[in-house]
Amino acid sequence: MGITKFVPTLKQMDCQIIIFMTRYILLAFLTLFMPGVTFSAIDSVRVKVVYDTTYSHSEEEKCQKDMTELDIGDSCSHFYSLWKVREQEVLDSVNNSGTPSISGVRSIIKKLSSAQAYNVFKNFPRQGTLVYTDKIIKDAFKYEEDMPQFEWTLLEGDTVIAGYQCKKATGTLRGRMWTAWYSPDIPIQDGPWKLGGLPGLILGAADSSGLYSFYCTGIEHGNDKPITLPKEQYIDCSPEELQSVYNDYYSQGTLYLEKVLGIPATKIAREHIGPEALKKKKATFIEIYNSKK
For residue 186, which of 208, 205, 202 has the smallest C-alpha distance? Predict the structure, then answer.
């Protein structure tokens, strides 16, 4: 059907033209598969939505970039970093090759160094439940929570994202005000990260500080791949406990490495990088769990 496969060089492609040509085929596909669905223990990918993503772990540092994907099934969805998948593919290839090109691997990994490791599963493994996972150094964390309940305000204003007409809305979640752009033409109440609950798929979103944003670059049919949790030995935790881990890691990463791996990271950093490597940073979070809103 002329649906383009997305690869890590997607940013260099003219996605607007591709999506414009295939949008009506896709809309018919969405209408066929999405309404009146029921949850099943194993879901599969029906629609794939790719986003250019920016984020920050500290206001003292510039925003970083990632390429992410929202895989939408009949009744649940999975949001994750495409660059992290690519990074793992490179590492697996190196492990299997036996004689890797160190310079070549270093070049590829450097381009993917801002890939994020977290996963967001909505309505998984049951309706109304969100599962969040992340891997920090060697530890994989997982928590479950109720699906976020946004109080969106629908506003005047429209724009076009990835060839789709979008309408504007604002809402707040755990300390951050979001401006979202959703497409009524795509009747799916989902979006990037934990965003959702609007009368159409969220194709663009940014918080008021400018630290976090998601903008769709393309949509394609799914590949019926099962939606499942990554295979890890998870440490079950609460959102608050994981936020505390994030704070330790992003504010003083060197000390965190020393604590978790048991290596003299502080000494090594001081000798090879300098005292600036030990400076404590003020960590920032996309959501704050001690916030009332």
Answer: 202
